[in-house]
Amino acid sequence: QYYWHRFFSHQPDLNYENPAVQEEMLAALKFWLDLGVDGYRLDAVPYLYAEEGTNCENLPASHAFLKRVRREIDAQYPDTVLLAEANQWPEDVVDYFGDYSTGGDECHMAFHFPVMPRIFMAVRRESRYPVSEILAKTPAIPSGCQWGIFLRNHDELTL
What domain range includes position 141? Predict the structure, then answer.
């Protein structure tokens, strides 16, 4: 294989270091927004960039690009929602909301992955504690942001 891929070999990663890739991604977002799309689920945001000598997760360059996306989208499409998909612990995901002092300048929402299995655990145990415990450990988020709570998604077992 002659390309980088984080996940499956049939899923080559884009080179976000290339300015042309960044421009094309923004153009694609705007194309669909012009057709009436209201928001995006931004898949695998911790892995946008790769950097030798790191685990290639949660890199500053990913946050810089998301801030740019948010700025440009907010300027032209102010009612659009950006939802981060980052299957990580809340203390790592919270950074994808962006600057706390501004109310958030990256994604408006982020999935709260650890809640999902705990919902089923709470039902099975007939106890609120699996859910209340993870929520108690969840960091505060900017005022203009929200956690996305879900039962299942394509990365998890189905109901």
Answer: 39-148
Answer yes or no: is 127 within a domain: yes
Active site residue 85: yes
pTM for this predicted structure: 0.89
Which residue in 17, 23, 24, 43 is the catalytic one?
Answer: 43
Label each residue of 81-104 as H, E or C. Answer: EEEECCCCCHHHHHHHHCCHHHCC
pLDDT per residue as tens digits for the range 27-68: 999 999 999 999 999 999 999 998 888 888 889 999 999 999
Residue 43 known to be catalytic: yes
85, 95, 105, 106: which is the annotated catalytic residue?
Answer: 85
